[in-house]
Structure formats: C-alpha cells, structure tokens
Write a sequence for this structure.
C-alpha cells in the first residue's frame, strides 16, 4: 500500500473512531502533500511524501517548544501525540550510534577535517539517511566530530 493510500485509510479509521487529534494530524499532512503537488504540478512519489511528512514533524516540534511555554497541558499532550502519529509514517529512526557510524564513513570518504567541510558532510549524510534522522541531529554530531 502506498503511503498516500495508507494516510487516507488511517484518516478514515480515525474519523470512524472519532479520534480528532489523529484525524487532524493526518489531514494536515495530506493537505501539505496536496499543496506541494499543486504548486509544483507533479505527483509526489514515496520519497517526496516522506519529505513532506518530515517537514510537518519538524514544524510541530518547533511549535511544541512555544506551546510548552503556555503551560497548557491539554494542548501539549495533543501536540506530542500528533508528532508520534506522524513519526509512524517515517522509516525507523537511526540511533545516535548508527548515525555516528554513517557520519564517520562520510567524513572519511570526503576527507573532511575542518568546519569548512561541514556543509558537504551534512549534505552527503542527509542523502544517506533519507528520513531516518533529521538534519539537526546530523549537524550536532558533525560539529562534535570536527571540533
């Protein structure tokens, strides 16, 4: 089953179960996918859909930091749940050790030694992990390695 079809089926199930948080999270992702497709006049493949989902997760994580300042537990819990729901559509996330191993390979392949090479390393590592780790984690590990 394609990711698009899975999103549609899960949204229907959420509607039947009257699970508004899950329905809203899936609906927003579907809307974002549709927006990208209309803007670029293309039909997204699985990789493109994963990128959209990653962007939506990133948006929600950054919004969560602001929401936590409001000290409203109900909204905080719903936001955390939305992130968890969307994470289910992404490939299994790499552990820090696995990610570090991939970054070490990239550093040795490129022959990087200074902070000037950081962009090249992040770009190469991001293409290798494709959705299994976010660029923030990659960047953090690269900075530690190049110090």
């Amino acid at each position: 089953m394609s990711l698009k079809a899975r999103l549609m089926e899960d949204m229907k199930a959420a509607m039947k179960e009257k699970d508004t948080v899950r329905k809203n999270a899936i609906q927003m992702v579907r809307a974002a996918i549709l927006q990208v497709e209309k803007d670029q006049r293309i039909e997204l493949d699985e990789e493109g859909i994963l990128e959209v989902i990653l962007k939506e997760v990133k948006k929600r994580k950054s919004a969560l930091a602001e929401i936590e300042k409001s000290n409203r537990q109900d909204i905080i819990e719903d936001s955390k749940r939305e992130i968890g729901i969307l994470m289910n559509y992404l490939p299994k996330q790499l552990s820090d050790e696995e990610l570090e191993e991939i970054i070490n390979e990239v550093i040795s392949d490129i022959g990087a030694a200074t902070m000037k090479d950081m962009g090249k390393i992040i770009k190469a590592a991001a293409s290798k992990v494709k959705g299994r780790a976010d660029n923030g984690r990659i960047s953090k590990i690269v900075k530690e390695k190049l110090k």
